[in-house]
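If you are new to this repository, start here. Below is one unmodified record pulled from the training split, so you can see the exact layout before writing a loader.
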Amino acid sequence: MPTGPISGKIVLVTGAAGGVGQYAVQLAKWGGAIVVATESTAEKAAQARAIGADHVVSYRDEDVAARVLELRRSGWSPSSPWSTSCVSSEETLRV
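And here is the target side for that same chain:
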């Protein structure tokens, strides 16, 4: 996992509405990162947004890797640095 400042980097947090995930989202935002969260339900997605996630992807309804790449292409520079927080789950491995 990369170390150092995360300002301006894109951080993927899986399970963002969970206990550890909430801290990961908040710390990443505090550090100036763009946060992409994954969640399983609309309620958890709303919670992830409420704590600061910039984008939320439903891993039950969407292909996470494809959606993250789509978000990146829609406005993020192709050279944007990525940092991942592997809180849990398999979909992180595909991104």
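Two things worth knowing about this chain: Helices lie at 19-30, 42-50, 64-73, 91-94. The two ends are 14 Å apart (CA to CA).
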